[in-house]
Amino acid sequence: MAAADGTTTVDAAVDAEDVAPPLDDVGQHDEAPDGTGHRPADDLFQGSDLMQPSVAYARNASAEPPPDVDGRFSEADPRSVVCAVNPDAFFDREYTAPLQAMIDHVITVEGPVRDDVLARRIARTHGWLRTGSKIRDRVVTLARARFPMVQEEVGAFFWPAGADQTRWPSFRRPAGDEPRPVDEIALPELVALARAVKDEGITGEDAITAMARDAGLQKLRAASRDRLRRAWTMASSGECE
User: Based on the domain organization, do 103 and 138 belong to the same domain?
Assistant: First the structure.
């Protein structure tokens, strides 16, 4: 059932859309979220999510990894904080604690992270190629109980606990060859990128191009350009300072 803020409640059972398709069906893309208002990613790069085994045993890891000293973005590994993942128990009450631990880990490492990206991380960890609405609702419901959520025009972002939701200290450049789509990056982080470019004395359209380059983009589409330009305007006017 849709709530006033556009979120939906969790159904008790999983249906066909939440079941992984055959393993050779790797070419299918995620279904667009229903009722979330998300725009499709406007860059060619969709992230490097890979199919995982249906049950995967985690490495022993009792603590969060140290923060990236070079300020680069890396995807979190949800399996690193649990002993095992169990897709069959995903909606069971008894599975809430390990599921919450995985969600907490992703938000702490990647946050601010868009809600559907968070759900996709958790779904892939459990071996699902698609992120159905019930899986997404289960993840978002648990995340909202523990972390602040900020709604933007491209979707809702979960922020790490205690973080200033109006300002992000610095832009996290891609750790590898796979950049994040611009609409999967929270606006305050893009403003941090714009500030860094501004400090280099770059202005005008050259600044937008420099932002795209620093974000790792090789092709800049209109929607991404508009979002970068908005971040540049905010940085230039002192917003999010």
Answer: yes
Task: Using a cut of 0.85, tell me whether the model's pTM lies above it.
Answer: no
Could you list the pLDDT tens digit for every one of the 241 residues in the chain? 444 333 333 333 333 334 333 333 333 334 443 434 443 333 322 333 223 333 332 333 333 444 444 688 989 999 999 999 999 999 999 999 999 999 999 999 999 999 999 999 999 999 999 999 999 999 999 999 999 999 999 999 999 999 999 999 999 998 888 899 999 999 999 999 999 999 999 999 999 999 999 999 988 999 999 999 999 999 998 765 5
Say how far apart CA 182 and CA 211 lie, in whole Å. 10
By DSSP bridging, strand 72-73 and strand 173-174 are parallel
Q: In this structure, are 120 and 201 located in the same domain?
A: no
Cα 5 to the center of its chain, rounded Å:
19
Collapse the DSSP code of 204 into the 3-class scheme (helix H, G, I; strand E, B; otherwise coil) and give the result.
helix
Q: Which of 158, 193, 210 is the last residue of a domain?
A: 158
Confirm if 170 and 183 have CB atoms less than 8 A apart: no
| Domain limits for position 54 | 16-158
